[in-house]
Amino acid sequence: MFGSASIRNVSRKTFFVLALLGIGVALVIKYGQSNTAPAPLAKEASSHIKVLSPSRIAITAGAPQLAYLKSEPTETFPLPLVEPLNARIAYNENNTARITSPIAARVIQIQAELGDNVKQGSGLVTLDAPDYAQAVADVRKAEADLALKDKQRQRAEILWRGEAIARREVDNAEADFQVAVAETQRARQRLANLTHGDKASTQQGLLTLRAPLNGTIVERHINPGSEVGTGDNQPLFVISNLNTLWVYVDLPERYLGKVEPGMNAILTADAYPAERFGGTVEKVSAVLDPTTRRFTVRCLFPNSELRLRPEMFAQVTFAAKNSLDVWRIPNSALIVQGIQQYAFIELQPGEYEKRSLDILSKDHRYSYVSGNLSGQRVVVKGALLLNAELLAGN
After folding, report:
1. One Pfam family for this entry, by name (predicted)?
2. Could you tell me the CATH number of the domain that includes residue 288?
């Protein structure tokens, strides 16, 4: 019994020793691989990079580092006075009309649809209105009475000259004629208010509402058979000329002294991130909004190509009226070393130069710099990688 137990203990010790030796061999092999594998890769990576000078570096074609680099052409931009602010594009209310019914009526026919471009005088909707029919009848009655009173006045004048009647009869006829003139004018004015002075609207005894200006139908709130009237909460149509738009900007208090009417406004829209649109500041509100602690600035923007649309997301910044253009580069291109800031310029494909920048202004997305960067391409992605390689080579 004692001998067999000793044999089992020896076997167990032998197994554990062999197991530990196997683990040790595996670790040695793995460690040796980890130390030797990166050497070819490091050698291969360094073979693609050549430092030409303390500020210039070249990367050969096909180098893996090129996949992490991106360059863009430099662009000019008016030196902004404030950072870009969120803006709301809206209709130009001076070129917008809200069409309502002047009397209670029922919709007979709709001639215009949402999105239609209409000309001044174009028919929008035809209404059947008893009050309108009464207005037409009042005009005809007044005109007939006026013609009768005119004849009576002329007859009285002839009789008076023949000494057949007294002068008082002539004066009475003249007074009746003047009353008829006033009544006719009142009836015609009432009808003109309903038809906007358009005689074509009186055809068939129906009232046709017409466009008062050239523009686009941007809202429609009626259907065939709808009952409409002067007490409606919303207009039947909204027509706006979109060739100009108003843009509202909420201006923080700290910028109030920098923005005034007449200066330039520059708009960028999410729909056109690479483009900018120019406008003019029209008004700065005299009252601070107590909720937002902002002043409302209204700008006017031309929109002849109809690319901007009301309610688009946009940002606006402001520049002095005679502001000079400066160079604008993305902040991702900047490298900060101490108090100095740099960017890499792509001299030619694969060759880059590190240049010091004179920053004039900066916002959360762009920096505005002086100097001559005409025709240059700046590295906007991977600038830190280039800087690390340049420092390592020096």
Report:
1. Beta-barrel_RND_2
2. 2.40.30.170
